[in-house]
């Protein structure tokens, strides 16, 4: 997208004149509130990769993540009325994804539970099958352990440990006090340690 904050495009309703299209963050928000399709497209182009990466980290499944991304941008025109400008539009999109995640998390967890048995089968002609098997088993244990967490704890783990966001940023995304975020993260990490390390005592 052009670095210029305003684009001039022909206005078909007035021959020889132009209409200003505001692609600044504030302008996009105003246009989204009017369900401007071009604004939705512009925001999608700017932020869909970030939203998709977060969704896949959260649900761990490509198909479920893609469905969640589509839900986020379909919901955006109605949700934009809640946008107060105290966080970036990108952060606001992540918060919408969190609000829509529950069903996708459950569906993805069921898929992974079914597929995890296949992941335990060593691949033929591997140079180091024992090491590869151990690595896959640990990965499976981590993924399945994450599935065991309540959604609110899973969200803070992904945002904090994978996306490396601060507790303040996470608080804005999920709409909870920073103290609550830190408490959720503490309990989530403790649960993960129990689940992943349980077989080793």
From TrEMBL:
RNA polymerase sigma factor 70 region 4 type domain segment(s): 141-192
GO molecular function, one term: DNA binding
InterPro entries: RNA_pol_sigma-70-like (IPR039425), RNA_pol_sigma-70_dom (IPR014284), RNA_pol_sigma70_r2 (IPR007627), RNA_pol_sigma70_r4_t2 (IPR013249), RNA_pol_sigma_r2 (IPR013325), RNA_pol_sigma_r3/r4-like (IPR013324), WH-like_DNA-bd_sf (IPR036388)
Pfam families in UniProt: Sigma70_r2 (PF04542), Sigma70_r4_2 (PF08281)
Biological process (GO), any one: DNA-templated transcription initiation
Region (Disordered): 1-21
Residue stretches making up the RNA polymerase sigma-70 region domain: 44-111
Keywords: DNA-binding, Sigma factor, Transcription, Transcription regulation
Record family assignment: Belongs to the sigma-70 factor family. ECF subfamily.
Protein name: RNA polymerase sigma-70 factor, ECF subfamily
Source organism: Labilithrix luteola
């Amino acid at each position: 997208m052009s670095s210029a904050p305003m684009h001039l495009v022909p206005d078909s309703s007035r021959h020889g004149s132009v209409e200003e299209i505001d692609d600044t963050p504030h302008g996009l928000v105003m246009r989204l509130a009017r369900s401007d399709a071009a604004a939705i497209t512009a925001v999608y182009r700017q932020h869909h990769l970030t939203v998709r990466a977060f969704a896949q980290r959260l649900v761990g499944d490509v198909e479920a993540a893609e469905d969640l991304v589509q839900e986020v941008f379909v919901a955006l025109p109605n949700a934009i009325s809640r946008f107060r400008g105290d966080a970036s539009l990108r952060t606001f999109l992540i918060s919408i994804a969190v609000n829509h995640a529950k069903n996708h998390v459950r569906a993805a967890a069921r898929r992974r539970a079914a597929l995890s048995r296949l992941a335990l089968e060593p691949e033929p002609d591997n140079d180091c099958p024992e090491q590869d098997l151990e690595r896959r088993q640990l990965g499976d244990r981590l993924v399945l352990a994450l599935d065991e967490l309540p959604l609110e704890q899973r969200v803070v783990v992904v945002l904090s440990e994978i996306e490396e966001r601060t507790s303040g940023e996470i608080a804005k995304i999920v709409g909870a006090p920073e103290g609550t975020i830190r408490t959720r993260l503490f309990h989530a990490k403790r649960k993960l340690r129990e689940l992943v390390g349980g077989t080793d005592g």
